Amino acid sequence: MRLKDNKQRIGEYKKRAKELVAQMTLEEKVSQMLHNAPAIERLGIPAYNWWNEALHGVARAGTATVFPQAIGLAASFDEDMIQTVGDAVSTEARAKFNAQRRYDDRDIYKGLTMWAPNVNIFRDPRWGRGHETYGEDPFLTGLLGGAFVRGMQGDDPDHLKVAACAKHFAVHSGPEDLRHQFDAVVSKQDMYETYLPAFQKLVREDGVEAVMGAYNRVNGEPCCGSKTLLTDILRGQWGFDGHVVSDCWAIKDFYTGHHVTANARQSAALAVSNGCDVNCGEVFLNLVQAVREGLIGEDKITRACERLFTTRMKLGMFEQPGKVPYDGIDYSVVDSPAMKALNLDVSKRCLTLLKNDGLLPLDRTKIKTLGVIGPNADNRRALVGNYEGTASRYETVLEGLEDYLGGDVRVVYSQGCHLYKDRTENLGQANDRLSEVKAVCQESDVVVAVLGLDPGMEGEEGDQGNAYASGDKKDLRLPGLQEHILRAAVDSGKPVVLVVLSGSALALDWTQGHVPAILHGWYPGARGGRAIAETLFGDNCPEGRLPVTFYSEDQTLPPFTDYSMKGRTYRYLDSEPLYPFGYGLSYTAFAFDREALSSDKITASGLTVTCRVKNTGGYASRVPVQVYVKARRPDTPNAQLKGLKKVALAPGEEKEVTIALPAAAFGLYDNEGVLRVEQGDYDVFVGQSQPDDRSRALLGVAPAALRAVCPEGFAL
After folding, report:
1. Residue 611 · residue 594 · CB < 8 Å
2. What is the mean pLDDT of residues 490-519?
3. Are residues 522 and 594 in the same domain?
4. In the annotation, is 458 catalytic?
5. Is the pLDDT of residue 466 over 60?
6. Residue at 579 is within a domain
7. What does the CA dihedral 282, 283, 286, 287 come to, rounded to 10 degrees?
8. Rounded to whole angstroms, what are the CA distances from 317 to 94, 150, 160, 312, 321?
9. Is the pLDDT of residue 463 over 90?
10. Of 523, 533, 507, 496, residue with least CA distance to 356
11. What are the Cα distances from residue 703, in Å, to 33, 37, 202, 366?
12. Are strands 607-615 and 654-661 parallel, antiparallel or unpaired?
């Protein structure tokens, strides 16, 4: 039993919270609704700062394990691994909290309310914050986001380990430079089919304790004060019982950007009336005056405070020290050898092999000199992404290769070019490292080019040095002179491996046609360099799969501000991508057979899919068994991922796999947002990829196609 299932215990916490809040004045209640809530000494309430971050490790609070960025974790396609990461992050969070409380440190980033995960849909590859998400697919996002929540919140029946937060609710994915005034106009069908499912799963199935609103409006309503989102859907339809927090200073946008209210008092009243409980910012300071002016009743202030103190009770903040089992987590677990080992293992399992003409894995006994070029080869920022902690040691790709090879192989290095400028030295001429690149290639037996982006090029508005689009990408090409130095390496005649570090899809058309091996490393965490080195030389077999579509450079994307899903992501794409969602290569091979459905008829009970998977190659590895469903009628999405299971197999080993497909896996939302399983035929595809032509061409194998029928339609 987890706390979310212990209704008696939760009822006790609600009762205690109600009794405590009843003793507060209006001014005291309002003070507790700010992210930096002061102490109320007369009631024995210590100060508490609600703002903490844990997207891929405890962030902004000193030393902690820095795991791969969320988009890299998503590439693992591994629900169990993500839950393990969530558990590790919350263990370090508790250890740091216990130590900080011991020394009465109640500063920002020191609490147990962690504002993660980000389960927005990465609908457009230009969005700078997409690397904070689990990709473009609602099913995968919900599956992995839910696993992270369960790992974070723990399995104790009496207390939360930490309180996770699903953000940003909802329909939020850029543009960054417009977010404070942007209205995301979206149909009910797209909202329920794409933008809401992950949030719904985390609320209804995984018991996420908090939800954060988004900056933008949705169909005219600001998200952090939206009756439709917060009252009707979140609490009404889904029965959410936790607390809602605003994004930071988003409520100020109500009157300064969205112009739906006239002033701060009206903005605060609108937000709280519709269910926003804590303000990251200061606008809620105006609630006292808003009550006096009759803009909001004090009962709604009381309701919000009771929710907030219920969460603090669940976290054990008002128990005697030692009564909460997590009080015993010692600081020694932070950045421990076990955490470092886990981080390395996780990083290796996220790496995604996009192309291999037989060059990989490299044989160290046949290489005397290895050339390493590129602006990301020794770039620590390209390891970690954003919302990151501080590692005690970072291993860039250059450092990882040097440490791995030791004295056996000489490593020669050139930065090659700036990440996006036309020169590395301000007083130098354009392309001032090209001759060095050519010299390194001449010296080397094999060249590893490490290119891509870093969080200074893509990320949240205000956090980047990106001069182009406030953190968003202006296009999908490698920036600056990166492709130029890559071409020089290829022209040298030496074998070239491209390692891409980025948090999003890039157009790698020329590379696909001219470079024999391409490994995508995402932002692979503090130990990413070591993980990449072990993978390039065959001590690790790549197993990652793409959680986003990689488009060709000549594909025209819909306008960035258009939130219709038509033409977006693999589910609605009507042209062939460069690399499809779900795609990834391995050093070994897998054979699937005996694919079957438990029934050829779809009912409210759903179906189960079974198959047998065998590792027919020479490397131990894992393969994600992917199940896609396609309704065989016009104007429906392409085959969609609806089942997933990661399977570990030694060479020659085979396993039977069973995956449940609930009735909802066959359902599609209508124009009114109702989920319906319509009468008719459905294709079910089982294998290691989606059933598109490009995946078949790249992998040389197609998933098995099974058929089921719904004899009589029904709504869910």
Report:
1. yes
2. 98
3. no
4. yes
5. no
6. no
7. -100
8. 12, 20, 10, 6, 9
9. no
10. 496
11. 52, 54, 30, 37
12. antiparallel
Indicate which residue of 247, 253, 388, 402 is catalytic. 247
**100-134: buried (b, 16+ CB within 10 Å) or exposed (e) per residue?**
bbeeeebeebbbbbbbbbbbbbbbbbbbbbbbbbb
What local confidence, expressed as pLDDT, does residue 167 receive? Answer: 98
Verify that 556 and 451 share a domain, yes or no. Answer: yes
The answer to whether residues 324 and 364 belong to one domain is no
pLDDT at position 46, please? 97
pLDDT at 321: 87
Question: Residues 407-411: contacts with CB within 8 Å, 24+ apart?
Answer: 408/364, 409/364, 409/367, 409/368, 409/369, 409/370, 410/368, 410/369, 410/370, 411/369, 411/370, 411/371, 411/372
Q: Is the residue at 57 inside a domain?
A: yes
Tell me: cis bond preceding 321? Omega within 30 of 0 counts.
no
Q: Is the pTM of this model over 0.90?
A: yes
The answer to whether position 266 is within a domain reads yes
Q: How many CB atoms lie within 10 A of CB 451?
A: 28
| Residue 166 pLDDT > 90 | yes
From CA 635, how far away is CA 291, in angstroms rounded?
Answer: 50
Residues 136, 402, 458, 543: which is the catalytic one?
458
Contact 612, 654 (CB under 8 A): yes
Name which of 139, 161, 142, 158 is nearest 205 in CA terms: 142
**Arithmetic mean of pLDDT, 49-77:** 98
Tally of domains within the chain = 3
With both helix axes pointing from N to C terminus, report the angle between 79-102 and 138-153 in degrees, rounded to the nearest 10. Answer: 40
- Dihedral of CA atoms 352, 354, 358, 360 in degrees, nearest 10, equals -30
The Cα angle at residue 501 between residues 496 and 505, in degrees rounded to 5: 100
Which amino acid would we find at residue 547?
P
Beta strand 496-501 with 446-452 is parallel
pLDDT reported for residue 461:
86
Burial grade of 379 (CB within 10 A; 0-12, 13-18, 19 or more): buried
The number of beta carbons lying within 10 Å of the beta carbon of residue 302 is 16
The two three-digit tokens of residue 52, written as one number: 């903490």
What are the CA-CA distances from residue 63 to residues 9, 73, 95, 688 (Å)? 34, 20, 12, 38
Tokens of 330: 């010692």
Length of the chain measured in residues: 716
Each residue's pLDDT tens digit, 232-273: 999 999 999 999 999 999 999 999 999 999 999 999 999 999
Is residue 232 among the annotated active site residues?
A: no
What distance in Å separates the CA atoms of residue 516 and residue 361, rounded to the nearest whole number?
12
**Is the distance from CB of 645 to CB of 657 less than 8 angstroms?**
yes
> Computed from CA positions of residues 512, 518, 519, 523, in that sequence, does the dihedral angle turn out positive or negative?
negative
To the nearest whole number, what is the mean pLDDT of the chain? 97
Other Cβ atoms closer than 10 A to 366: 9
Task: Give CA 321 to chain center in angstroms.
Answer: 34
On whether both 647 and 534 belong to a single domain, the answer is no
pLDDT at 554: 83
Q: 331: which 2 tokens?
A: 């600081």
- For 547, the domain range is 347-572
Q: Do 174 and 66 belong together in one domain?
A: yes
Of 299, 329, 359, at which residue does a domain stop?
329
Same domain, 396 and 447: yes
pLDDT tens digits along 630-639: 999 999 999 9
